Amino acid sequence: xxxxxxxxxxxxxxxxxxxxxxxxxxxxxxxxxxxxxxxxxxxxxxxxxxxxxxxxxxxxxxxxxxxxxxxxxxxxxxxxxxxxxxxxxxxxxxxxxxxxxxxxxxxxxxxxxxxxxxxxxxxxxxxxxxxxxxxxxxxxxxxxxxxxxxxxxxxxxxxxxxxxxxxxxxxxxxxxxxxxxxxxxxxxxxxxxxxxxxxxxxxxxxxxxxxxxxxxxxxxxxxxxxxxxxxxxxxxxxxxxxxxxxxxxxxxxxxxxxxxxxxxxxxxxxxxxxxxxxxxxxxxxxxxxxxxxxxxxxxxxxxxxxxxxxxxxxxxxxxxxxxxxxxxxxxxxxxxxxxxxxxxxxxxxxxxxxxxxxxxxxxxxxxxxxxxxxxxxxxxxxxxxxxxxxxxxxxxxxxx
Length: 400
Ligand code: DNO
Known about the structure:
Blueprint: E1 2-6, H1 16-21, E2 26-29, H2 42-54, E3 58-63, H3 69-73, H4 78-94, E4 99-102, E5 114-118, E6 124-128, H5 130-140, H6 152-164, H7 167-178, H8 190-199, H9 205-226, E7 229-232, H10 251-260, E8 266-271, H11 272-276, H12 283-289, E9 294-299, E10 301-304, E11 310-313, H13 322-338, E12 347-350, H14 372-393, H15 395-399
Parallel strand pairs: 1-2, 1-12, 2-3, 3-4, 4-7, 7-8, 8-9, 9-12
Antiparallel strand pairs: 5-6, 6-11, 10-11
The structure holds D-mannose.
């Protein structure tokens, strides 16, 4: 697998040199400063590539070209936005970036309630406390209809959490869930968020799925013609948030997408951490089922809890069998090489990392995107990959 590293651009406190020191071969990035729906000009894309290559790295994946909420609703300026999206795709391909990640989560992208959850090793991890999230939605935000959206057990756990936590704690949760997280398209205050929610009122999961299919029906053939690969990132977490549908959460969701849009250009960002927070997602089975369409892998682990909460675990521990998942992805690469596929090598990145060592005290750090924690994750994953490569090359020696 190609070992890549997410970099948020020249403002990222973790530099390209840091990525190189961690052993990354390639970079995953986007023009994050141009995230407002405008298309990316060729010269801007080429300039970004130049900066990456000057550091001795390659730009392997664009994560992401943002998909506007208008495209997700298919109203307002959706046509303008799809055209801009397609222009950006064309310019990326012209600049040699052929793998493009995107997501279709309405309003909020990835969501955590706690960005500094202490681990047993005294590092800090990202966590999604489901009762706290429900408490925020139903009792702090007081979203109309919120209480009807949750099962009774979830609501009573949320009531208990609401009683436990003070206003200060909910202010932090609010900032985390509707305010800024890295790579989000928008940050909201409470009033803006209510407005954004009302624009989606009445949109069902079937509607959102139809809008995703209409979008993919347009960009898939274009990508195929350009020789690009599209990798739909799953919802994170893969459940409905704020009553909004999310339609890239399970194997069934991806099966439906690929049945309706069979172009091999349409693929998945196999995000082990996002999908792995649901006990009904078997990541190794998904890697095998969708193998030829795994255009990009996010390798990260989660420890799930009975009430729907999860905490980001170390890369090789947690509920996803990471070693088996790496094996499945290496097998897929082998199949591709045998079939003569030009894209036999799957780009992977160590997704997120704990806050460790000197990173803990730093004032500026993108949650999940620390230097040391990701360096550790990549080193562990590289060890697994190297060991399998050795076993494959020396299997006769082992069995003989
Ligand atoms: C979080 C990320 C997401 C992801 C986008 C892809 O760490 O995995 O922000 O980049 O959802 O479009």
